[in-house]
Every structure is written in structure tokens, then in C-alpha cells.
Amino acid sequence: MTTFDLNLLVALDILLTEGGVSAAARRLHLSPSAMSRTLGRIRDTFGDPILVRAGRSLVPTPRALELKAAIRPLLDEAWAMTRSVDRFDPATLRRTFVLRANEGFVAEFGGRLSRRLSDNAPGVGLCFAVMAQKDALALREGRVDLDIGVLGDSGPEIRLQAILRDRFVGVTDPDHPLATGGPVSAERYAAERQISVSRRGLARGPIDLALASRGLVRDVTVVVPGFIGALAMVRGTSLVANVPERQTREARRGLFSFPLPVETPEVTVAMMWHPRSDADPAHRWLRAAVRQAVED
Fold it and tell me: Where are the alpha helices (DSSP H) in 47-102?
């Protein structure tokens, strides 16, 4: 494959603009002899004299004039590519981002994020994905642009940023006995039929460990994969759901919510991305939009 020194285009543009070797040499901080050698390389590359003597000055050949018209747009475009971060305008962006997040996050913050995109980046689309295996492979392979979830082992190279801290609360139908019978004790809570939320189908977790320290066991009768499904099952039934407070605020509207009667760890929700996207101005803008949607 024949190689081509793109710096020759810069030199040619300056030669044709200045109309002489000496002036071009001063612009490029070269000696006149070095500039003459560069002109020789340009002539060999394009198979044309480029500049020819006319009395005491040099004039461009017809081929040189053709090249001058073509070179300037190329150099302008190359310069714009190096300045793309500073000049990034989300209003001109045409792209669809894939975000992996649980349905609770989508229900609570997806609308806010979508409105922000509609107002500032109407050409941007969102695809929310839920994948069975929550690991870094989808980020590494480029199948997911941004992974949003509980902070955990994401892989050594994955970039991450915490965006919110959340705690679990109990939720029942407003006519449930826990909603009408005074403070919810650990004993009353454990005696009720409960829903466990687990993508892996697990019926036990941190709440059960906290209850066990008091000699109590939950009556888990239903396991569902997502928080929104758990809240839907609570309505009009005697079931109790346990969901993250901030990520289900809207979904819990009209239901009875109460602090869990046992101590459970807070969870940190983070957004994670692959290093290849770290400096991408569009991806940086997306990350800022997600943070703002959560903070609104």
C-alpha cells in the first residue's frame, strides 16, 4: 500500500497561499532550503510542477489551482475533527444509545431523561435493555453504551460513577392491616405474606439475614424479577413488597409505604461505561443528562 504524508497538504496550502518558497518557509518555521525540498516532494507526489517561474515570481499551474480548491475543505474538516469536543452540539446529534437498567429506574427516571433529550437532542433515541447476565461483557463488546445498576464488581477497566444512594422500604395496599394497625414492628412485618424481587429467582436476601438475627423468618410466597411487577401485585392483595425508595417513588403512588423494621444496607446505584466511550463528547453528554435526570 502506497503511503502519503498528509503534512504535504498543509505545506502545499501554505505555498499556494503565500505564492513563494521564502514566505511559506517563514510560515512553517523552516529554512528556505528545507521548504524547497518539501516543494520537490509535493511535485513528485502530484506529478506536477505546482509553482513555475514567471519573471521574478512564481505562479501556480492549473493543476495547483485545482488542488488548492480541494485542499482547503479537507484541512478545515480535519481541524474540525480535532475540535469536536469543544464544538459538540447535542441538537445535531443523530444516534441511539443502549442503556441497561432495571425497570424501577426506567419507570422513575426514564421519562425525565426522555424529556431532556426531546428538549436538547431531538435526534437521539434511547433503547432500555434488560439482560439476563449482568456483567461487563456487554460493555466490552459494545452492545450496551451505559450500564446503570447497583454498584458491584464491574471489571477492572470499566469506568463508573455513583449517581444515587437508595434504601429499601416496605409497601402494601392501603387497606392492608400493616397500613392501619399502628407502627410496623419486625414481628408484624415478618408474619405477613411477602414478595421477593430477584432476577435470579431467589427468595432470600439481606432482609432475611436481618430478621434472622432476631429469630424471625419471612413468609415469602411470591418471587418476581422486577420491582414494578412487585408493586403491581401489592395492589388489592394482602402481599408485602420491599422496593428501593427513590427508584419507585412514582410507582408507589397511592400505596402505603413504611420504613423496614430492621436495618438493611443502603445501596449505591452507579452508571458504568467502557473506556472507549470515556472521551466521546456524545457519550459524555449522555452521562451528564442521566445525572441531571436523577437529580431533578
Answer: 62-82, 84-87
Residue recorded with cell 424501577: 104
Domain's final residue, options 61, 82, 103: 82
**Structural domain that includes position 22:** 7-82
Pull the grid cell for residue 13: 496550502
Q: How many residues does the chain have?
A: 296
Point out the domain boundary residue: 58, 82, 106.
82
CA–CA–CA angle 250, 255, 260 (5° rounding): 95
Q: Is residue 238 part of a domain?
A: yes
Which grid coordinates belong to 76?
Answer: 478545515
Number of Cβ atoms within 10 Å of the Cβ of 4: 9
The Cα–Cα gap between 201 and 291 comes to: 30
Q: Over 90: is that where the pLDDT of 259 sits?
A: yes
Tell me which residue of 71, 115, 37, 122 sits closest to 289, measured CA to CA.
115
Residue 154 predicted with pLDDT over 80: no
- Is residue 257 located within the same domain as residue 286? no
C-alpha 284: how far from chain center: 7
* Co-location of 104 and 76 in the same domain: no
Confidence of residue 124 (pLDDT cuts 50, 70, 90): very high
Count how many domains the chain has: 3
How is residue 176 written as a grid cell?
392492608
Does residue 136 sit within a domain?
yes
Distance CA 27, CA 21 (A): 10
For 216-254, write each residue's pLDDT tens digit: 999 999 999 889 999 999 999 999 999 999 999 999 999
**Percent of the chain at pLDDT exceeding 90:** 48
Q: What is the CATH number of the domain that holds 16?
A: 1.10.10.10
